[in-house]
Structures are given as structure tokens and as C-alpha cells.
Design goal:
Elements: H1 3-13, H2 18-68, H3 96-104, E1 106-107, E2 113-114, E3 146-149, E4 164-167, E5 173-175
Parallel strand pairs: 3-4
Antiparallel strand pairs: 1-2, 4-5
């Protein structure tokens, strides 16, 4: 073999053919088509698991509040707290503001709220906070609003907007959505 023939052989071996490149691109496209839907369903599964965890945490906090506040659920009753070195809560009975304050701030036995230790009782009693990192947003729509009612009747979700729905008489809290979960069997409000 002469020098010219060796040079031609080396040039041919250096690159990929168009067919080889097309085959690689097609294989990558097929793999992407298979894997991407699995990742998106994992996200929905994680959101639904977070929803269940948030609901369990909120339900536990609500029951603990009731046990420590003479059978009253958060959001139902408030009295003015003596708040030394802090800021009193501004919520009024039956509102989402009071519900959030009574779960996320310090309270006295009568439901008065303060962002620091409460000293209105004799002897001083400081309870809470029951939810330490603020009111969690429901993870499906990322909405932290709370629709508060005071009927005692079972809560029925109002549409598919999301957020929370809570009753101050029964202590029931649900995700405020009639949309079906990823299994398409039950509504988010029944989690």
C-alpha cells in the first residue's frame, strides 16, 4: 500500500455516516418518549403524597389545639391576649386570619394570639405554635388560602380552584377541590 492509499483509508474511518447519526437520534427520541411521561407521573405522585402529609399534619395540629383549648377548634373563639414584647394577632372569630394565627402563633388557653410568648393567664400559659413553618400551601395547585365556615356540617369542596376548606365547629379540613386525583377514582377533597 502506498502513502496515498493509507491516507484515504484514514479519512474514511474518521467520521460517522449520516445513517449512523440518524439511528442514534431515533434511539434517543424513543428513550425520551418512554422516560418523560414516567417523570411527570412521579411529580404528581409526590404532590399527592405531600397533600396527604400536609393534611395529616394539619389535622393533628387542629386536634392538639382543641385538646389544649377547652374543646374549641382553632378559628372559633378568641379573647384578647396580653402580649409582652410582641405583636397580637389581628384575626376575628370565624375567619381564615384567626385560624392561621391560632395555628402558627403562640396562644393562651382562651385562644388569644401573640407572635411571642403569651402572658395573659394566671399562671401564665403559653401554647403553640402548632404549625411551625407557617400555613402550608396545598401542593397540587400551590394555594394556601383557607375557606373558613362555621356550620358543623360536612364540608363540600367548592370547585376545582384548590386551597383548603375548614370548619370551626367540626374541625374538619379538606383540600378545596372536586378535581379527581391521578388515579381518577376519588376527588382531592376526599384525601
Amino acid at each position: 500500500m502506498n502513502a496515498r492509499t493509507c491516507k484515504t483509508v484514514n479519512m474514511i474511518q474518521r467520521g460517522f455516516t449520516l445513517i449512523e447519526l440518524l439511528i442514534v437520534v431515533i434511539i434517543l427520541a424513543i428513550l425520551a418518549a418512554i422516560l418523560i411521561p414516567q417523570f411527570s407521573s412521579s411529580t404528581v405522585d409526590a404532590q399527592e403524597a405531600a397533600l396527604d402529609a400536609n393534611l395529616n399534619g394539619l389535622r393533628s395540629a387542629i386536634e392538639l389545639y382543641k385538646a389544649q383549648h377547652s374543646g374549641n377548634y382553632p378559628g372559633a373563639v378568641i379573647t384578647a391576649a396580653v402580649c409582652t414584647g410582641g405583636t397580637k394577632g389581628l384575626g376575628t372569630a370565624g375567619t381564615d386570619v384567626l385560624f392561621k394565627e391560632q395555628l402558627t402563633m403562640y396562644t393562651d388557653i382562651r385562644g388569644g394570639t401573640c407572635d411571642r410568648s403569651v402572658v395573659s393567664d394566671t399562671p401564665p400559659t403559653t401554647l403553640g405554635p402548632y404549625v411551625r413553618k407557617g400555613m402550608p400551601a396545598e401542593p397540587i395547585n400551590n394555594i394556601a388560602t383557607v375557606l373558613v365556615t362555621s356550620t358543623g356540617a360536612p364540608i363540600v369542596a367548592a370547585g376545582t380552584a384548590g386551597g383548603w376548606a375548614y370548619d370551626t365547629v367540626s374541625g374538619q379540613i379538606i383540600m378545596n377541590s372536586t378535581a379527581l386525583d391521578s388515579k381518577k377514582v376519588v376527588a382531592y377533597s376526599t384525601h
